[in-house]
UniProtKB/TrEMBL annotation:
Catalytic activity line of the entry: 2-formamido-N(1)-(5-O-phospho-beta-D-ribosyl)acetamidine + ATP = 5-amino-1-(5-phospho-beta-D-ribosyl)imidazole + ADP + phosphate + H(+)
SUPFAM superfamilies: PurM C-terminal domain-like (SSF56042), PurM N-terminal domain-like (SSF55326)
Stated name of the protein: Phosphoribosylformylglycinamidine cyclo-ligase
Localization per record: Cytoplasm
The PurM-like N-terminal domain, residue ranges: 66-170
Organism: Brachybacterium fresconis
Originating gene: purM
Family per similarity comment: Belongs to the AIR synthase family.
CDD domains (alphabetical): PurM (cd02196)
Gene3D superfamilies, per the entry: PurM-like C-terminal domain, PurM-like, N-terminal domain
Sequence ranges assigned to domain PurM-like C-terminal in this UniProt record: 183-349
Length: 382
């Protein structure tokens, strides 16, 4: 039955707000960057319904375990949109995903992305994907597929969000985690590049309360506020895989913790076994200027700040004490600043907090494990 009203104006897909030609143009702009992440293990090219990766190498594993992770970037996108700078967000996305995979000792194999937007602006979409491709290159991970979805009427034309997922592999007997952690292990903290991709709702609330412009030059940062806030997330994967593979540090790393939402204490507690605790000395490092500025601008209580932001430590390794120096040496060779920030002790020997700013964290993220004591104070902090 023909239900078309001949008197009604014709409505096309483009009239509804979806521009398929713009999507095709975005793909053309990003193709070269995506292809640069493909090694001989990647089959086919861009445009296939599914990405294909040759995993024949897994036949050499005794018991390969697949590790998977998915994540997004959160409200940091609001900063990118206001600054009209979109080529760093992709690196943030990769860091959030692949650094969760390496925590169990796995090497990432392949990643896919998803971008939802109100309207496809080819150059903007291409910038985002080029950032994702750069992040994958830094992590030695192939970007094998993705999707861009246009949602007119659901999202404003300038709005977008990004998400990604990746899969990696680890030999079962090399799996890292709480069961390897021992009393006497040292806690090594690795430098963050800045805020990374967590806590931006707090940061944006502070900026709004103070009426601060992203264009404002901040002497403590040596650049504009917006540039500081868009500093890409450090990607630790390649550095950590180098430590795990180096003969000098064989078996040194017992567990890793990626410091994301919830901060250092909550994420470190996720890899502490029951009966053990990590005593972390804040005096062993000084958070970057961005953390103290946010605290000052918003009068943010310290416990709230460090339960939200990474406080300058983006990744933590629990390492056998006898191999701590070798681990620090290999990390230094990788160009990654790191230092001992604490030790693992029996939970019943954990000292009581000595000041209001010291506190014990346990049971974070639903994990029934050990505890973390954040003790002391950062240099220069009251």
């Amino acid at each position: 039955m023909n239900t078309t009203d001949p008197s009604a104006p014709a409505i096309t897909y483009a009239d509804s707000g979806v521009d398929t030609a713009a999507g095709d143009r975005a793909v053309e702009l990003m193709k070269e960057a995506v292809a640069a992440t493909h090694g001989p293990q990647v089959l086919g090219g861009i445009g296939a319904f599914a990405g294909l990766v040759d995993v024949s190498a897994l036949k050499d594993y005794r018991r390969p375990l697949l590790a998977s992770s998915t994540d997004g970037v959160g409200t940091k996108i609001a900063i990118a949109r206001e600054m009209d700078t979109h080529d760093t967000i992709g690196r943030d996305l990769v860091g959030m995903v692949v650094d969760d995979i390496v925590v169990v000792g796995a090497a990432p194999l392949a990643m896919t992305d998803y971008i939802a937007c109100g309207a496809v602006v080819p150059e903007r979409i291409a910038d985002i994907v080029r950032g994702i491709a750069e992040g994958c290159r830094l992590a030695d991970c192939a970007l094998v597929g993705g999707e861009t979805a246009e949602h007119p009427g659901l999202m404003a034309a300038e709005d977008y969000d990004v998400a990604g997922a990746a899969v990696g592999v680890v030999e079962a007997d090399q799996l890292l985690g709480p069961d390897r952690v021992r009393r006497g292990d040292v806690v090594i903290g690795m430098d963050a590049s800045g805020l990374h991709s967590n806590g931006y709702s707090l940061v944006r609330a502070v900026l709004a309360a103070q009426g601060l412009s992203l264009e404002a030059h901040i002497d403590a940062f040596g650049r504009s506020l917006g540039e500081e806030l868009l500093e890409p997330t450090r990607i630790y994967t390649a550095d950590l895989l180098a430590v795990l593979a180096d003969p000098r540090t064989a078996g040194a790393v017992h567990a890793l913790s990626h410091v994301t939402g919830g901060g250092l204490g909550a994420n470190l507690a996720r890899v502490m076994p029951r009966g053990l605790a990590a005593r972390v000395d804040r005096g062993s490092w000084e958070p970057g200027a961005v953390f103290s500025q946010i605290a000052r601008w918003g009068s943010v209580p310290q416990l709230d700040l460090e339960g939200t932001l990474n406080m300058g430590i983006g990744m933590v390794a629990l390492v056998g004490a006898e191999q701590a120096d070798a681990t620090l040496a290999v990390l230094s060779e990788q160009g990654l600043g790191a230092r001992v920030i604490g030790e693992v002790v029996a939970e019943d020997r954990l000292p009581e907090p000595g000041t209001p700013s010291e506190h014990v964290i346990a049971g974070a993220k639903g994990v029934d494990g050990g505890a973390v004591l954040l003790a002391g104070q950062h240099p220069g902090w009251a």
